[in-house]
Amino acid sequence: MNAAKPLPAYLIQRYQGWKATTYSDNRAWYKRLATEGQRPRAMVVSCCDSRVHVTSIFGADQGEFFIHRNVANLVPPYEPDGDHHGTSAAVEYAVTALKVAHLIVLGHSQCGGVQGCLDMCSGNAPHLEETSSFVGRWMDILRPGYERVKAANKAEDQVRALEKESVIVSLENLMTFPFVKEAVDGNTLSLHGLWTDIGEGGLEYFEPKTRSFKPV
Amino acid sequence: MNAAKPLPAYLIQRYQGWKATTYSDNRAWYKRLATEGQRPRAMVVSCCDSRVHVTSIFGADQGEFFIHRNVANLVPPYEPDGDHHGTSAAVEYAVTALKVAHLIVLGHSQCGGVQGCLDMCSGNAPHLEETSSFVGRWMDILRPGYERVKAANKAEDQVRALEKESVIVSLENLMTFPFVKEAVDGNTLSLHGLWTDIGEGGLEYFEPKTRSFKPV
Amino acid sequence: MNAAKPLPAYLIQRYQGWKATTYSDNRAWYKRLATEGQRPRAMVVSCCDSRVHVTSIFGADQGEFFIHRNVANLVPPYEPDGDHHGTSAAVEYAVTALKVAHLIVLGHSQCGGVQGCLDMCSGNAPHLEETSSFVGRWMDILRPGYERVKAANKAEDQVRALEKESVIVSLENLMTFPFVKEAVDGNTLSLHGLWTDIGEGGLEYFEPKTRSFKPV
Amino acid sequence: MNAAKPLPAYLIQRYQGWKATTYSDNRAWYKRLATEGQRPRAMVVSCCDSRVHVTSIFGADQGEFFIHRNVANLVPPYEPDGDHHGTSAAVEYAVTALKVAHLIVLGHSQCGGVQGCLDMCSGNAPHLEETSSFVGRWMDILRPGYERVKAANKAEDQVRALEKESVIVSLENLMTFPFVKEAVDGNTLSLHGLWTDIGEGGLEYFEPKTRSFKPV
């Protein structure tokens, strides 16, 4: 591995500032976290998108949230086939090893992955349909959501609806994992669906009775 | 999907506080981020661990880092087989669509995934060797690192060495992706390996010449 | 006093959120509370335990409960010997200056102080028996409860019984304070004993006739 | 103990509402807290005053703060004399058993205990000087603060100054406890002094260099 380079200077400078301030002022807590291990109350499945910081929105402390971030905050269905499943591994670790009490799926507006899925499913992005497209094959997880969105929405409303389906599909898929279902049925885990509007700073939660999102 | 519940009240309260302060004070920037899209300088591959906040360590702004988080900050090898590959999709999106200039892999001390891999590879965690173990199959990615660690280290040094191998293996696997190699060779992307010590607040970077980590 | 440090940033952020929402929305009431002073209906003696929030359980408003919290919600016997007695001072202030109408002692399950008392009284915690152990000397207050518990319960039931004795002993000791007895006899103060189960969310009250706790 | 009465109906009603909503929605977390025990990051020493809710100001979760509340948020000096010392027991438990990383002393405006101390020390409250006055003997802890305040402030500024001295004196006394000093010196505990203005919603922190309070 010969390609790695040193860190850009501005990041080194910021790290040194953090070390002299935030780290220094909270050293006791960091040491305890290192010694005793993490004990997060919740797992969050969020998007990689650089505009969505779940720790900022919820004023989260170090040690509070176990956070998995992937494109479009998707959870695939349960498939124990021996392959590498990064999302399933993260969910398994959070639920069975860390025994988190909450599992929150956080979707958001202007999601590039969701837009790609909509383009692909409506026939406008042939490159995403190729076997070799990782983004396309990943967004296949959201196809069941697209079918529902297409049937029920006008074209101009479909992106917003599909962003929210990315949360619903993930919640549905989570329940196909035996250890998730068992924990939910046994009241040791609760699931939560959220969607945030980047520009407006809004936050909505999924209400299963009406199958809709409401402002918190 | 009938299992979803409303958000705990303390999180709603904190969100409303964020909306009235952080969001309100930065509304113009959030609106631009929503309208113009994200344009992150770097992608970070980090662990889900609740104790590692890359945005805190580097004082990162909204819009600055495209962040993928999975168990043990692993990137699998290039395998365009039509299956769901969440990590590969995130890397593909960052490099080909967002055209990030840096790709940073951030490992850390006390990693539960790495410890699990060590236990499994040394024969002490048979449950992780089962086909149905998502964590076990995910940590298989790190097996090449284990082989090197086993050969070169005493038992008590193996965990630390394997934590650092999780960064090196990911950097190696990244270079098996044609679009990553092309961008690195064309000088439009640079790779960086980092490892942070949770308790000490230390940060080290991977130096390819000596194949070792040095304090930044 | 040179050791004090600034507050961790996440707490400052949360405070600023509170200021901009909860405080801002209730400013008129906070200002009246500041100008006119507090006028709480009840005093609560509760445990320091981080898992017990009496204001949450009873939806309490600012200004509603005068709350003293110590290890194991204990009230010592009346001892006007000129020493510092924090609990007695709090009770005296609530009953004679604030003239609260109710005095509630709230015990709870999984109390570390009660467990320590049980260990100490049964000879399994010699360090708590030392003169220099503040926790041990504080838990001495509960020794009369231990004697009753030991006589009447099997070993596996003793912790639960002693948790409830921590409430009964405190109620008994309260009546040794002349100003408490006078207020109770004069019907200007009523005493209440409660015990809450953290995991089950249960709440029981002390019924003097049967000397037992019943679900509310 | 024959004096105890059942709970007022409005409190029973509120409890039942809490059980059906907050408890029900967070059952998984409450169960974990019961099973695994508490692991608070910080201890808070706050006043019994009904107008000061530290969990509200900081949006605190169940399990986050170990809270001791007494009159005027005072910590007495280290006195291992075998008597009951409720505050010292709470500090000992938090620092040596729970190993909290932060210890926060929170003072506030309009503190009745501080006003009583000022009246007593300036000769205007003879009843507080009696041996039998628990409030008076408790507020003796703050006398060293009164001496400093008297020397440096005009009469009309003395109450405010003494409210802040209640924080400083407590921080000073904390450092007389060997286990506190050892933890602070060993960087496993940090101390923090805060003062809040009830009517204005302000929050100030103690800065040791200038021995003054500054807005956070």
From TrEMBL, chains A, B, C, D:
SUPFAM superfamilies, sorted: beta-carbonic anhydrase, cab
Pfam families, alphabetically?
Answer: Pro_CA
Under SMART domains, the record lists: Pro_CA
Query: Where along this sequence does the record place binding of Zn(2+)?
Result: 47, 49, 108, 111
**Listed GO biological process terms:** carbon utilization
Alphabetically, the GO molecular function entries are: carbonate dehydratase activity; zinc ion binding
The EC number(s) given in the record are: 4.2.1.1
Q: Which family does it belong to?
A: Belongs to the beta-class carbonic anhydrase family.
Q: What is this protein called?
A: Carbonic anhydrase
- What species was this sequence derived from? Marivita hallyeonensis
